[in-house]
Structure formats: structure tokens, C-alpha cells
Amino acid sequence: xxxxxxxxxxxxxxxxxxxxxxxxxxxxxxxxxxxxxxxxxxxxxxxxxxxxxxxxxxxxxxxxxxxxxxxxxxxxxxxxxxxxxxxxxxxxxxxxxxxxxxxxxxxxxxxxxxxxxxxxxxxxxxxxxxxxxxxxxxxxxxxxxxxxxxxxxxxxxxxxxxxxxxxxxxxxxxxxxxxxxxxxxxxxxxxxxxxxxxxxxxxxxxxxxxxxxxxxxxxxxxxxxxxxxxxxxxxxxxxxxxxxxxxxxxxxxxxxxxxxxxxxxxxxxxxxxxxxxxxxxxxxxxxxxxxxxxxxxxxxxxxxxxxxxxxxxxxxxxxxxxxxxxxxxxxxxxxxxxxxxxxxxxxxxxxxxxxxxxxxxxxxxxxxxxxxxxxxxxxxxxxxxxxxxxxxxxxxxxxxxxxxxxxxxxxxxxxxxxxxxxxxxxxxxxxxxxxxx
Length: 437
Known about the structure:
By secondary structure, the protein is an alpha/beta fold. It is 35% helix and 14% strand. It has twelve helices and 14 strands. The protein has helices at 7-17, 25-33, 92-99, 116-125, 135-143, 174-179, 200-219, 226-248, 268-281, 301-326, 402-413, 419-422, and strands spanning 43-49, 77-78, 85-86, 103-110, 151-153, 167-168, 183-185, 191-196, 287-292, 332-338, 341-342, 354-355, 357-363, 372-374. The strands form four sheets. The chain has an eight-stranded mixed beta sheet, with helices on both faces.
């Protein structure tokens, strides 16, 4: 099927041609009525730089050689016509030069902790304590209730607080097992699309009897105990989800991108991005978390952190290039952040330890709020107070915290006033990150 074909029309064609006979009753009805609506809104992508990134060698550069060794010979780099600056480190020049038109850099965010788990919670949920869902979970619950892949996780902070379930996709090969459950492994060589447990005619009989049995059970539902009714509804929803997942097979490339990136690094972020974009294209996915590791550089900081940053940059650049190739780059709303940052200086092992003052990068194609940097830190990398509306330095203003960032993200996504968001209040002042200054 042409990827550009309207997926609602695709389901209607299935019904008209008789090919939808294997679909569960509820999905067949939705297809026939034309009221199955794949998700096509913004695709919310959270990218976690796991371990605590060094923003003073990234998007909030500091030129004191005691803070960064590169400062002994080089200075802060600037983007012409933009307030975005960067350090002469890793692939920063290429990364910021190419992507700054889509980028809002927010510096001076006080994570209020040096502990990894607390930093993850605060940056991705807006609350230091446990119990709040990630932004990705909230967005998926608001916009994707009922979709089988509404929230696709790769192992980042994926707490849901019960508002939705996530699908853990650390092994993209598992998609074949989800979509083609009737196929079998052939001599350990992988899934062979030409070989099945049953002949097609046998599968048709099995599917017909399953559908008939489900219909009989649903007809008897009013006479069942409430617990049995709930179990039957869950089973029916799961069957719907299985058939919906077959739509995904149209978008997952037959050949997945290699795990090795252009620098020769093992880089799972590439395949995470590829699968996430395919899930969004299918209309089944609202949000995803992608994860890049290796930033907790307590020793050998310069070399190891440069490698971690390059893996991250290669992954983000691939995400944008692949989205552009697929014609959906205008749908991306990306948030890149980390647990916290690294100390403004080196330890005895030539590493850097944990430091709470960090940054977050938002990205959306040529957004009105992009191509700039906001938030303030001192030369010693300490946070400065800003006016929440003008974002200028203001001694009577606020110190940015992750709760402000998450509140702004909820507002950007249009879910701040939703009852699900109201169940998890952030008690944060509204900060004009995405408005007009």
C-alpha cells in the first residue's frame, strides 16, 4: 500500500473487498462506518541523555579552562542570526549549524538533585517525588486512548501512574512477533515471512471460529459477573489491538537501520528512532521515549563524554533526516534532556561529577519559538533568576526548575487543562518559553 494512502480509506477498502473478514467484529464495524481515525497530530518524542550530560561542553558553553579543557585554546561558538551558542566539542558545530532553526535551548534549569533516579523523575514528570506520569504518558493518554502503541518506550523514564500502558520496544525485532504471531523461527535464522505454523485456509478457519466464539461471549455479557465482563472487554480490546498492529507492518522497513552509526559507535538510538517513526506513520502511536546512554563520565570525561554526545547527535540527526524522508518532519515535537549536568570542573580522575544545573532542548520544524536560546547561568555555571514572561534576568524572578519545563510542555501540547493533567498538578508558574517575547 502507498504510505500516503488515507488509512481510513484503506480499512474501508478491506471491508468492500471482503479482506476484512479476519478482523474482530468491533474493528470491522468501525472500518465499515469509516470511523476508525488513526492518530495524525504532533508526534511527541522525548530523548533522554542518560547519566547526566555536560551542558558546558554542549549548549551552555563556559570558557574557563578549569571548567573545560577545550577553553585553553578555543572559545564559544555562535550561530549567525541566532542566540544559540555552543562549545567546540564533539559534533556540536554540525549539530547546531544544521538544526538550530528548529531548536529552542533552555539553560539554567535547577534539577534540585544529584541523584540519578530523582533527576530522571523530575525532568520527565515535573515532580521530584514518585507517583507522577511522564509527559509522554500523559500525551498518549490524552490523544491516544485505545491505540495499541500510543506510548512506545525504549526504557527511559516511563512511569504512567495508571493513565495508560506503554509498549516496551527495546528489541525492534519483537515487532515481527507482535504482528506475525503465526510465523515461526527457521533454524535460528530469524523470522521467515514465507513459513507459518498453519496453512492460510487453516488460519482462516481458526480466525472465523475465534470471532464466532467472541461474538457468542459478547452476546452473553449482560448475564456475566462484572469481573468476567471486564475480562472479556479487555480480551476484545486486545484482539482489536492485534489487528491494528497489522497496519504497522505496512510502515516498518523490511531492512532496519544498522546499530553502528557513521562514527563506528554502537548506537541503538538510530533504530529506536526508525521504529518510533514507523509506529507514528501507522497512526497507532502518539508519543515515544528514546534513550542514549553513556553520559555519567566520572573519569576520562573529555573522551568519553565526546563519544556519548556524538552518539546522541548522530541519533537526533537521523531522527530528523528520516522524518523528512517520510514527509512527517513537520509533525515532530522533540524534547531532549538529561538527569542533570556535570560539575563545572574536573575531579582527580579527570572526570566530572554530578551537578544540578542543566539544560533542555526543544525542537519543532521552523517553530515561531525556535532558533534561540533562553535561560541564564553565570560564568561558573550557576543558575540565574529570570522573569517568567520576558525571560530576562530578574533578581525578583524565578529559578527555572524541571516543573516549569514540564508545565510549559503541557501547555505547548494543549493538555495542561485536561483532567488527566489536573490530576497531577505541577504547582509551577507558567513560563513564556513558547510565546512571543
